[in-house]
Amino acid sequence: MNSFDIKTKIYFGDNALDRLTDIPYQKIMIITDPFVVQSGMIELVTRRLDKSGKEYSIYKDVVPDPPIEKVVLGVKALLEYQPEAIVAVGGGSAIDSAKGMREFATKLGAKEEMALIAIPTTSGTGSEVTSFSVISDPVEQIKYPLVSESLLPTEAILDAELTRSVPPAITADTGMDVFTHALEAYVSTENQEFAAALSEKAIEICGSFLLRAYLDGSDTHARKKMHIASCLAGLAFNSASLGINHSMAHQLGARFHIPHGRANAMLLPFIIQYNSYISKHSRSQKEYPKQVKKYVTIARILGLQNFNTITTIRALVAWVQFMLREMDIPLCIAQTGKCTKEEYFAAIPAMADAALADACTPTNPRVPTKDDIMDIYERLWDVN
Ligand SMILES: NC(=O)c1ccc[n+]([C@@H]2O[C@H](COP(=O)([O-])OP(=O)(O)OC[C@H]3O[C@@H](n4cnc5c(N)ncnc54)[C@H](O)[C@@H]3O)[C@@H](O)[C@H]2O)c1
Ligand SMILES: [Fe+2]
User: Fold this and answer.
1) 120-175 per-position pLDDT tens digit
2) CB neighbour list of residue 40: distance below 8 Å, 6 or more residues apart
3) CATH architecture of structural domain 7-164
4) 280: burial class by Cβ within 10 Å (0-12, 13-18, 19+)?
5) Which residues lie at CB < 5 A from ion ligand 2?
6) β-strand 9-12 against 27-32: which pairing, if any?
7) Which end of the chain is more exposed for a tag (fewer CB within 10 A), N or C?
8) For ligand 1, is residue 64 a contact (CB within 6 Å)?
9) In the UniProt record, does the keyword rRNA-binding occur (predicted)?
10) Residue of 127, 171, 181 to mutate, ligand 1, most atoms within 8 A of C-beta
11) pTM (predicted TM-score)
């Protein structure tokens, strides 16, 4: 038996932030990152809270790839302030931090059940509608997704006005995160028609609007579309989960601080080829595994359908590589300048173990071995 539900109420479109004047909570803690406060963007939120006479406090110490000790500091702040609701404003890091803080504060005896209102300022993670929160452990050098229904935000507010200031590199990385969510959910072993429909629309939007948003950040139409796509892809993977692209990307983020979407984007060409059993040397076969048909459908949605199955999968891989080049995303780890070859290769066995144990791995359409994962990491070092 399957089920599908969307527990988070979604407000979207022009002036969606006006929802803040109507929320039925009086005492609020805003959880955000320093950029949102320093840039003045926070005023788009506080102005509305002031207008409706809310009491609020601002916690602004979120850092990218939230480490567990920062989450602990936020839990203390929540237990001291005891708000009725949390308003999380920022990228995936701010929203994931708020989810983790609320979860632990509730377990540690917060007086009231706190509502969580998630307001994304990047079009990327879809965290505003997912039961995932990705936390880093800097000591163990791993990043692990917590997965629980209790992490789901109560409300999500999608106002693309907040994404206009996202610089091109972050638009590129987060946009490829959207694409990876939609694609991994689509080929996941848990995929079904509801999640598939959400993925297909998200992919269609990425195909038409991601490059536009990257090339011109003030292209409001493209920004709005990508903001919706991010949420659609979040709903898709919240229902169907992800795969080893994410499992492997989490390790690259934890060890070498490669931004999440960028790590996903670099891995994608390798993972599509691995999951489809089709490389540039493959010859056509009578039958292909189920996921190959799904990749072909994605290629068709992107307008890439080609001569036959093999040429179509190659076209899909080439499209991803084209997007990476157009948006100045490195194609391999060597191009990131984040580590030496020795450091990288020394980390591969431990990264492979952690990727195999990652919560996203069980739904990958091809069951990987440690050797498979190590082989992909090794080839990711240098594409030349
Ligand atoms: N919970 C989930 O379902 C889920 C899914 C995928 C990824 N993640 C996690 O989310 C995190 C990544 O989130 P992200 O990609 O949104 O990036 P982020 O939240 O880490 O932000 C990246 C940078 O962008 C800046 N930024 C945010 N909004 C901006 C704006 N409007 N204008 C200018 N700069 C802005 C931030 O200050 C930060 O410096 C990772 O930890 C990843 O593992 C979570
Ligand atoms: Fe992601």
Assistant:
1) 999 999 999 999 999 999 888 888 889 999 999 999 999 999 999 999 999 999 99
2) none
3) 3-Layer(aba) Sandwich (3.40)
4) exposed
5) 177
6) unpaired
7) N
8) yes
9) no
10) 127
11) 0.96
